[in-house]
Design goal:
It is an enzyme of class 3 (hydrolase). GO terms for molecular function: ATP binding; ATP hydrolysis activity; transmembrane transporter activity. Residues 4-234 form the ABC transporter domain. By secondary structure, this protein is of the alpha+beta class. Helix content is 25%, strand content 35%. The chain has nine helices and 19 strands. Strands 6-7-8-3-9-10 form a six-stranded mixed beta sheet, sandwiched between helices. It binds adenosine-5'-triphosphate. Adenosine-5'-triphosphate binds next to strand 2 and helix 1.
């Protein structure tokens, strides 16, 4: 059985269905991210897991124990909030020791545990300072230590990095991953930042309007999104409308059908192609391709982002597509605004 097993959770706030039939299995030691747009129910799901909200129906089993109706104090979790929520009148040491002191643990055990966590997060020299004397990143590390001090079975992180500036955020992101690897603690993090989710999670739970849209590894979610919503939310996609006939895909404006990797049922379909999966040519290629004109070019540092207007002779429309190229690939091409280009795609990079 999974470490955390969530079945058919339902939660409403008046008329609003915040969680709509949520089922999810989380294995021991996994790092899971709940990802989705504002208001999709990520925080409500996290708060329901730890008992800060109660569900209308459905069950939560943690480590083979049904915790569905247990109060938050009786559940086995540690939580870190976006706002740090440290005690301003207590030193760093005492903030971290707080829960252990409350449990009347032996003094030496508390000192050892707090020192171990201070050293794990590089905060030793700040032990006697007060929260107001620390930077945001340092305060968040203290909050993390305080949650870890109780050695919880489940670590919950509610947008822990979103109040921090970009550089510190990136640093703390790596630090949380390192601590997770070291302690192997089952961790759930709420975020609306896809880079955070893609770089930190073993599996991502993509949510939309109270429902789970897709659960998968970052790679699965990026390369084989379960829905148009997921494809659009994670990264950038070109959306095209085509038609399947046996093992061929007819794309409007394309000179010939693209051979599909596997046979699919026919009919009209929505196709997603990632910008980095479009190949540009200065001359007409031999396989299936479309022709277009470059309407815009953006330099992104290590990549070029090229916007193309596709000449669609069939529908007489001018569709805009986005292509991204490495500087190395772009080096072999002449790419200027208004210049004509030919576009092709590998069949295995077409997501139906
Ligand atoms: P964000 O990224 O903005 O924090 P979220 O995905 O975490 O969003 P939730 O905070 O879980 O979303 O909220 C889900 C929905 O439930 C939202 O429409 C929100 O307004 C509503 N909601 C959440 N808490 C309450 C509450 N206590 N009372 C009424 N409505 C609530």
């Amino acid at each position: 059985m999974s470490y955390l097993s969530i079945s058919h959770l339902q939660k409403s706030f008046n008329d609003l269905l915040a969680l709509n039939d949520i089922s999810l299995e989380i294995e021991k030691g996994e790092f899971i991210c709940f990802l989705g747009p504002s208001g999709c129910g990520k925080t409500t799901l996290l708060r329901t897991i730890c008992g800060l909200e109660s569900q209308d129906s459905g069950s939560i089993i943690q480590d083979s124990v049904d915790i569905s109706r247990l109060s938050a104090e009786k559940r086995d979790f540690g939580i870190v909030f976006q706002s740090y929520a440290l005690f301003p009148n207590l030193s760093v040491f005492d903030n971290i020791a707080f829960g252990l002191v409350n449990q009347r643990r032996p003094k030496q055990e508390i000192t050892d545990k707090v020192n171990e966590l201070l050293s794990l997060t590089g905060l030793q020299e700040h032990a006697q300072k007060y929260p107001s004397q620390l930077s945001g990143g340092q305060q968040q590390r203290v909050a993390l230590c305080r949650a870890l001090a109780m050695e919880p079975g489940l670590l919950l992180l509610d947008e822990p990095l979103s109040a921090l500036d970009a550089k510190i955020r990136e640093h703390l992101r790596r630090e949380i991953c390192r601590i997770h690897r070291k302690l192997g603690l089952t961790t759930i993090m709420v975020t609306h930042d896809q880079t955070e989710a893609m770089t930190m999670a073993d599996r991502i739970v993509v949510m939309n309007a109270g429902r789970i849209e897709h659960v998968g590894t970052p790679e699965e979610i990026y390369l084989q999104p379960a829905s148009a919503f997921v494809a659009d939310f994670i990264g950038t996609s070109n959306t095209l409308y085509g038609e399947i006939k046996d093992t061929s895909l007819l794309l409007p404006g394309w000179t010939a059908p693209v051979a599909l990797v596997e046979k699919r049922t026919g009919g009209e379909t929505t196709i997603l192609i990632r910008p980095e999966h479009l190949t540009l040519h200065n001359e007409q290629p031999s396989g299936p391709h479309a022709q277009g004109t470059i309407s815009d070019i953006e330099f992104l540092g290590s990549q070029l982002s090229v916007e193309l207007k596709l000449d669609d002779h069939q529908t007489q429309s001018n569709k805009a597509l986005k292509a991204t190229l490495s500087l190395q690939d772009a080096h072999h091409l002449t790419l200027t605004r208004n210049c004509p280009v030919w576009i092709s795609v590998q069949p295995n990079n077409v997501c139906l």
